Amino acid sequence: MNERSNENKPYTIKFEPRDGYLYVYGYAKQDSFDTSLQFWTEIAAYCKNNKFSKVLVEEDFATDTSITEKY
């Protein structure tokens, strides 16, 4: 698995190209709107740069965003 971790990011992300799709695993101790936005933007960029049109994402975020942030 291709792991991308950066001390500036509030999450760890791993990319694994599989037969016909991209598998992504993400881990974070805490979720927020900013964390989710950064996480999904990185996935979209990876898919675009590597020409993946199908992706399966598994999130392991210890907390959920608040109702206020969801709106």
Task: Give a summary of the structure in a few sentences.
By secondary structure, the protein is an alpha+beta fold. Helices cover 31% and strands 37% of the residues. It has helices at 33-50, 67-70; strands at residues 2-5, 12-18, 21-28, 55-61.
Structure description:
By secondary structure, the protein is an alpha+beta fold. Helices cover 31% and strands 37% of the residues. The protein is built from 2 helices and 4 strands. The protein has helices at residues 33-50, 67-70; strands at 2-5, 12-18, 21-28, 55-61. A hairpin with a 2-residue loop joins strand 2 (12-18) and strand 3. It is elongated, with a radius of gyration of 12 Å. The mean pLDDT is 87.
Quickly list its features.
alpha+beta, 4 strands, four-stranded mixed sheet, 2 helices
Task: Give the topology, please.
Layout: E1 2-5, E2 12-18, E3 21-28, H1 33-50, E4 55-61, H2 67-70
The global form is: elongated
Query: Widest sheet: strand order?
Result: 1-2-3-4
Helix percentage range:
25-40%
Sketch the major β-sheet.
4 strands, mixed
List SSEs in N-to-C order: EEEHEH
**Beta-strand percentage range:** 35-45%
Class from secondary-structure proportions:
alpha+beta
Number of strands: 4
Number of helices: 2
Distance between the termini: 34 Å
List unreliable stretches of 5+ residues: none
Mean residue pLDDT: 87
Q: What's the gyration radius in Å? A: 12 Å
